[in-house]
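Aim 2, interim progress. The first record below pairs a target sequence with its structure tokens.
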Amino acid sequence: MPRYSEAAHFRAYNNLHILFANFKFISYLCKRDYNDMGVTFDNTEKKFVFDFEHDGAEDIVSLTGDGYQVEAFGKCFYYGYEFSDQTESSVRTAFIKYVKFTEALQNTPDLTNFIKKAVDNLHKKINLYNFDLVVMPESSSKVNQYMLRYIYRFAQPTLYKMTLVKALPSNISFDMKAYEKQYLDDILENGMPRYSEAAKEQAKSSINAMLEMIHQKDYFTIAKDVKKSKLRPYIMNFLRFESEEERELCTMIRQQNVLVIDDVTTSGSTLNEVLRTLRILNEDNEITIFSLIGRKDLMADSY
């Protein structure tokens, strides 16, 4: 006689079917919670619409999933969101301004959840508890401070914070040698130089004139004062340690995990300057970079 009746077979099959369906549903929820998130632009209402449960073809910006770790600056670089290739430049600019300069950030749930979602995603990838020091550039935006406060929810109690502040505009310089080597001395496929000697001299003269204007300012902002994005990665010495004590502390750090955070990375110039300022760190420290909004082709405008 068979051990199990047809009814028992049916019940077992039905239970397995239910179990498998539940497993698929739970997997879907986990995946959705990890990756699904999008922002669209309502052209009629002229406002941004956040959807924290779905992503779609009309999204202007989306949460990045696995595989969006980029080797930039010779360090591990993560970013929370990326713009769609179809997003118009004017919409990108408007969204960045909305994220960075909304006055009542803490009272704007869409923006705070937008930030939290990205940090949650980062924590799943790198475990923020493992970090000993967070470094961020001074910014008029409130996003970095909010990100830092949220990071402290996952971090060890001894996590140390360091802010690199703006240097005097008169101290700002331009890495002309690197710019010449990587841009002005470019060679075409036919072996001919891209720029004539006269064009090179004109470009250098224009850069020097820009520097003179910067040196006369009371306050420097790279996005406003350096209009050409291809020049921004070569601007130097616009950040400094807040105090001599922090600089000395930085020289003594050994075998620590350092997290550098910034709100938006387009040309990479600010993060590049942060890393230049941190070059006094011993090489046995591990530096990881995180930006709320970034791009895969980072530094592409530099060449």
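The second target in this work package is listed in the same format:
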Amino acid sequence: MPTIKKVYRVLVAVPIWLACAALFLLMLLTFSDVILRSSFDAPIEAATELTRILVAVMVFAVMPHISVQGGHIAVDLTDGFFEKLGLTRFRDGLILILSGAMLFWPVAQVWTLAERTRGYGDVTEYLGMPQYLTMWFIASGVTLAAVAMVISGLLALFAPRFLKEFQA
């Protein structure tokens, strides 16, 4: 079990570090673009394009982790009610399963759009980078989030100790 836990922790950490790297690159890009634009009247031509790509990487790299860890904004109007009835675990598991299941329609749509973009051969304006690569990354992030949410929901309902052990 310790080996599985180590592998799990590495698999969780990789997308987070990828998002951190994207944020750092975005910071460097913005700083450089402002300095070049202000001082030398020479902006980075592809800055907008790179910003869009890096923001997509940041958001969709951590989406599975945020979804499973409960990092979304939540309204806790019914928490007291569910706690009194002892149904908090049931509510959380059900919400994760339903939310993950609802993501499967957007997953299908994003994969379809990515394949359509690949078929058309669309590329970015300045860099000439195939647009489907970014779309595949987005689709992968949403797919992993959906699968992770359903699995976490099932574990919350049927094996809460196992789920808590891996989240600790």
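The chain has one domain: 2-167. This observation will shape the mutagenesis plan for the next reporting period.
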